[in-house]
Amino acid sequence: MSAGISAVLITTFVLVSSCSSREGSSLIEHHRIDSEDLDFPEEVEVAASFADRFYEPVGSLVEPDMSTFDLPAQASEVFNLSHVLRRAGIDNTPESLLENGFIVFNAFYSTDNPITAYETISDWDQPVYISSGIPLHMLHIFFDQILQNLEEKYLYEDLLIVCNSLYKINLDRGCALNTAFFAVPLSLLDPSFISDPSIADAVFSELELIEQHLGFEDSPIFGYREDYSQYIPRGHYTASERLERYFKTMMWLGRLTLLLNGGEPHGQTATYIVSEDDAREMTASALLIVSDLNTVESDGELLLNKWKRIYEITAFFAGFADDLSVPEYSNAAREIAGESADTDLIWSPDFYHQFRNYVNANYANPSIYSGTGELISMPDENGEFNPDDLQEAFVKTTGFRFLGQRYTPDSEILGKLVFPAVGLNPSGRNRFMPTGLDVAAAFGSDAALSILEERGAFEYDFYGDSLASLTSMIEDYTPSDWHSTLYMSWLHCLYLLQKEKGEGYPDFMCNDAWDRHTLSNFLASWAMLRHDTILYAKQSYTMQCGCAIGPDEEPVPSAGFVEPVPEVYAELRATLKMAERGLMEFGVLDDEIEMRFNNATTILKNLQNIAERELAGEQISSEDADFLKDFARRLEIAISWGGITSEGLETSLIADVHTDQNSMSVLEVASGNLDYCIVIYRRPDGNIEAAIGPVLSYYEFTWPMSDRLTDEAWREMIANDEPERPFWTEMFLEE
Fold it and tell me: What is the CA radius of gyration of the chain?
């Protein structure tokens, strides 16, 4: 253990071993708590999947049979190309447009508002192109706005009641650790709250670290290392002071762990994070919380019901906890203690050993290392690192989280494709920072795989095997897995998006450049998903490395062209209906939101129908043409939410998705201003036509963890010093 940690344990860690009402060093004498009976029901049930309750598939069966032509295209054969290029401000026909059948470019009228983009194009009297990225962005708006509404209107108050009740009962019984644990969120949620003098100093110190959010520090309450840079409000949580308070509270309740396993030696590089005595007291304190939830009422309702409502609503959106919580600890305690559980029993060493062994044997460890304890992987006597250190980190960090951050497969992918699970490359370098390409590759993107090969990712020891294992995990997902939560349904939309397109699809969709453009769309939408769930999705960490490194008469332009991926629009429809059914059952669906759901699903149904007709080689109907010409207005009706949030409709969104403890930096992924895309395709009448429309952009870069970027900072960066795009976008992006 380092000298710094030893000092904290000596001077400030008294709270971690404290469950008595006496002051000073005697706080560690937990046995002075009066004996009381505890209640652990036979089974605490929480939802484990929402697929069967809320999801119903929307089918899309069409045999691709579009008319095609051989690339490269001939400019003279595209009857409206000169008109489209002139409107776009492009003087000469780009060679890559003819070579690939499409180009993506920045325009001088760039915007991050899709409605503005479509309104601009609607005045040109040229076919409008509708990219799949736009309805994916629409899903972001619904996801983000509804979640924000639920947090402010419902979850904030429930959270305040639960934390206040648990604070008071633990203060009365003299359990300082639990009292301090709940005093922190109370201080954040209620500015008028004043901590009891017995724990006030530690709570004040904890709040200072949260407000400074500089990075890893020793927690004054828990003693081990915590990453306080995670407490920078970002995503939609900068929209109001209430949301900022909610963000910090849920981050605290989602990250701090009452550790299960302890022993000697303990510390950042040791077998355990804390001593056995400390782990025993943390475990007993966790069981007090579980019992209190089952016995304490507020306004005639058990706290457990309020806790379940908070957990299940957030799980519906963002996924299920990666760490153990109330159900597992309650069930395990009942199994070990039987009918006679009391405070004397749960603090006994014999009970702790039985309980610890039962939990370790019957419940899975976390799948994502989230930085708890700032663990360090040390080399052996030969200077080599053990890839199993990551698995050992999962055991070390096993424990109870009150509202633990959520498991997502993309976080697992990022966390398992870096040191120490991945070894050295031939140059002797470690892979400390992942990339969004890792996620796309595991989801089956051939474009991502080829880029990773170009970058030398497969030269790192174990990278290929680890990626293959993760790819198999994704391929083995069942429909129930894919639709267990809204987060997973969104990921399934992206999974379908990147599926290989072959015969019967338009020419521009059947080349490497389009595959990379699809990859950019995939990652831009994924960045939005991570932005919307930044508070809940458990972020992966790289462990610290110890001492390491035409005819005469022109045809009339059509109304437009929809990217022919009808299965994606069908899945988006199903996802929105899943959200609507869930909100209705939770009792939080109001009339205005229901109306917007109806408008959005109508848009998606029309896009699906048009895409199916296009792909089948059929002429779109006059009603389809009217829909495309009026797309800007229809989109505005569906997604313009009238000032619920400061974000509005912007596509310029950013999220940090992984933290590297070695460089003290994070991986930022972002979507920026809309690009514009021109596509060339053959119509059913045989004419070759060009269409133009907005598409999503993608950015990825590392940034200091102490300055995790907000949307506001990202938009300022775009305006003043825009980062470079990923190098692999050069194949389709026209400068």
Answer: 27
Quote the strand ranges of 338-415, DSSP E.
376-377, 399-400
Statement to judge: residues 281 and 191 lie in one domain: yes
Q: Which of 352, 369, 404 is the last residue of a domain?
A: 404
For residue 640, what pLDDT band results from cuts at 50, 70 and 90? confident
Query: 560 and 583: one domain?
Result: yes
Query: What's the burial of 91, exposed, middle or buried (CB within 10 Å: 0-12/13-18/19+)?
Result: exposed
420 is a domain residue: no
Number of domains into which the chain is organized: 2
Same domain membership, residue 575 and residue 719: yes
Q: Could you tell me if 684 and 573 lie in one domain?
A: yes
Measured between alpha carbons, how far is 332 from 351 in angstroms, rounded to an integer? 11
236 and 100 within one domain = no
Tell me: do 162 and 135 sit in the same domain.
Answer: no
Q: pLDDT tens digits, residue range 265-300?
A: 988 989 999 999 999 999 999 999 999 999 999 989
State whether 535 and 663 are in the same domain: yes
Whether pTM exceeds 0.90? yes
**Run of H or E including 371:** none
First and final C-alpha spacing in the chain: 53
Say yes or no: 329 and 477 in one domain.
no
How is residue 442 written in tokens?
A: 């595991």
Domain of residue 9: give its range.
Answer: 3-49+155-404
Angle at which helices 512-532 and 446-455 cross, to 10°:
90
**Residue 6 — very low, low, confident or very high, per pLDDT cuts 50/70/90?**
very low
- Indicate if the alpha-carbon torsion angle 684, 689, 692, 698 is positive or negative: positive
Query: Which tokens hold the place of 617?
Result: 């080689």
The C-alpha atoms of residue 170 and residue 177 are separated, in whole angstroms, by 9
Cα separation, 190 vs 181, in Å, equals 15
E strands, 606-711, are 653-660, 665-671, 675-682, 688-695, 699-704
Alpha helices in 81-175 (DSSP H): 81-88, 95-100, 114-122, 133-150, 156-173
Q: Is residue 413 part of a domain?
A: no
Kindly state whether residue 148 falls inside one of the protein's structural domains.
no
Q: Is residue 412 in a domain?
A: no
Percent helix, strand, coil in the chain (nearest 5)? 50, 10, 35
Any residues with CB less than 8 A from the CB of 426 and at least 6 apart, and which?
459
Give the angle 427-428-431 at the CA atoms, nearest 5°: 100
pLDDT, tens digit (0-9, with 9 covering 90-100), for 147-169: 999 999 999 999 999 999 999 99
* Residue ending a domain, choose from 371, 404, 437: 404
Residues 6 or more apart whose Cβ sits within 8 Å of residue 357: none
